[in-house]
Write a structure and sequence with these properties.
Blueprint lengths: L3 E6 L3 H12 L4 E4 L11 E2 L6 E2 L12 H8 L5 E2 L12 E4 L8 H23 L7 H12 L3 H19 L21 E2 L6 H7 L4 E2 L6 E5 L2 E6 L2 E10 L3 H6 L3 E3 L4 H9 L1 E3 L1 E7 L11 E4 L9 E4 L1 H4 L3 E7 H7 L4 H16 L8 E4 L12 E3 L6 H6 L8 E3 L12 H16 L5 H16 L1
Parallel strand pairs: 1-2, 1-11, 2-8, 6-15, 9-12, 11-20
Antiparallel strand pairs: 3-4, 5-7, 9-10, 10-11, 13-19, 14-17, 14-18, 15-16, 16-17
Helix pairs in contact: 1-6, 1-13, 2-14, 3-4, 4-5
Amino acid sequence: MGSFDTIVIGAGMSGVTAARMLADAGHRVVVLEGRDRIGGRMHTDREAGFPVDRGASWIHGVDGSPLWDLVQALRIPTIEYTVGSFQVGGRPIENFDGDGKPLDADATGRWIADVDTVDRLLVEEIASSSPGDTYLDVTERALDRSGLTPERIDDIREFFRHRVEEQCGAWIGDLDAHGLDEDAIDGDEVIFPHGYDELPGRISAGLDIRLETTVTKVVRSKDGIVVHAGDATFTADQCVVTVPLGVLKAGTIAFEPPLPDPVAGPLSRLGMGVFNKIFLQFDERFWNEDSYVLRALGEAGEHWHSWYDVSAVSGLPTLLTFAAGPFGRRMQDLPDEEVVADVVRSLRALYGAAVGEPRAHWITHWGDDEFSNGSYSHLALGSTHHDHDDLAGPVDGVLHFAGEATWGDEPATVGAAYYSARRAAERILGRAVDLDDFAARIIEREQTEAR
């Protein structure tokens, strides 16, 4: 139809992957990105002289993961860190009871057993749930059946609420009963000591990417696509939209004609969560060196409850905690200094005067970010896992959607962004894309450039 074969909107992991696969196949591709950088919700801040991943941090489960295969093929360094999925045990965790007192080995064992027992009941309750049931409904039924004391039930109730906040960025009563069905982790989890954004950075090298180009309208017809970004227009035969679900839900991109119900329905039903990070760096470590997580249970952990030791990245004692769901939205409205002071107060309730003043901090505000309007997608009440995949389209054979929100098997992950990009590219090309070949081409280009 016009200047390009395909326009890709968004230069996050999904956008650059789709563009790279299409360009490798000989397509004329342009990527339009509203930010002044690539990576989207993969955002590594290096201003302090070491990487701070403000966005995505983990690969959640490396077994059978094509994303992990890509990371290995590109020889990107990782560190094993297997509690990024809000687990109750499995690695050293310093647990504190509702009064802020450390749990001994026996109490920790009982706590892990309690959660495992109720989780098994929860699986049964989810399987027998009815449409309209929330995750809060099914957890309460499981707790009712547990036979545990009220105090132990209260601690597990709090744990379930925080698990939903961290995994989905949502309140437990807004999540569908099946909202964590696809949350299984296979194998170890890893983080990236040199920063996660190396991945989209290397994939995108050499692509035609127009930064600070904010798309406002996408017009489709049987002849193709016209994309408006300010005063500029771009024409192509096909378009892949990879902006976050929060941007689509905000309606800042107009679609003409309007999106049909098979795509508009899922778009309206799925939820976009808020998950904000608070990194605190200290002069001295006040926790055990082999601990992955510090966790306050029950009343002591009502707000700030889990701190992850990510010191290995900078070499300085550093904890990462989260503010997610409604709490995360409230926190991002406060001055950073107030947030830091509140986190430090919670830590001192557990460790006392050993907690010094932080030497540095980093705080995110993903819910206020106009180019994401949240952190990642979840199954809001009334939506199903099919909605994720249905959101991908295509529409009229020319308009495709990709990104974590469009992949039902493991939404809210970088893996989902990667796999959904491959699906969009394959639909446009009409053939399969070999992921080993995809990785080999990236390496070959880099070696050619280095000569």
